[in-house]
Structure prediction request, 260 residues.
Amino acid sequence: MSAPLSPSLSGRKSHERSTSISESHSEEEPQLSLNQFYPYIRCAICCGFFIDATTITECLHTFCKSCIVKHFFQSNKCPTCSIVVHQTQPIYNIRPDRQLQDIVYKMVPFLEKSERETMCNFYKERGLPLPNSVVASTPGPVVIKKQKKESPPQSPFTIPPELDVSFLLDFVGAEEGINSYKPLERRYVRVSGEATVRHVELFIRRKMELSTTCQVDMVCGDHLLDHDQSLKDIQNSVGEEALQDGLLVLHFGLVLSTQS
Prediction:
């Protein structure tokens, strides 16, 4: 009968056995290159990595948000599988995919930093303040220079605070065949919350000098807006995702009118 192992010898052999097992497991782990994941993390429209990844609920194909929104002003079909997303308003059936976007940022080095720098340069070149979402995601101290402005004289006609609505008009594109329009220079607007979507459309028509053959479609978040909706009702019904620094963000595009 063999003598029992001493505690030191038994512990050393146990350590050697666990080390050999962990080494064999590490050797079995496959090393995959990034390009093997390209079909899952790149947009089929722009062929770049997803930015603001947005998924079509009907077929679960994903694209950059700006790419798919612009595509839907030209077509109501999915760019990948050609399924009809919606007969008249396909933009109803898209949803942000934040988990996938986080995965893309972790898989592609420097992509998030590059996108953040692009956004910062965009606002800087136009003399606009950085949104809180950009400032919060920027590492290190961010110095924002504020110019001192003389306070303008107060108008005797003021909007009550409970009715005040400030919004940002984001132009996403025009349908093919619409070429005659002026760029919208005034994108930040403050009006009474009693104003309706119809009032905003008339403002856009006047500033962009649109013809009667051109129709203005407006979207807030995932909702296509009706002409009779008031801005205050829209602001109360949408979530935080549709707000940017307290501003109501209204996306609008130009399509050919279906009226004869």
Summary: Residues 152 and 158 are 13 Å apart (CA to CA). Residues 7-28 form the longest helix (22 residues). The chain is about 30% helix and 20% strand.
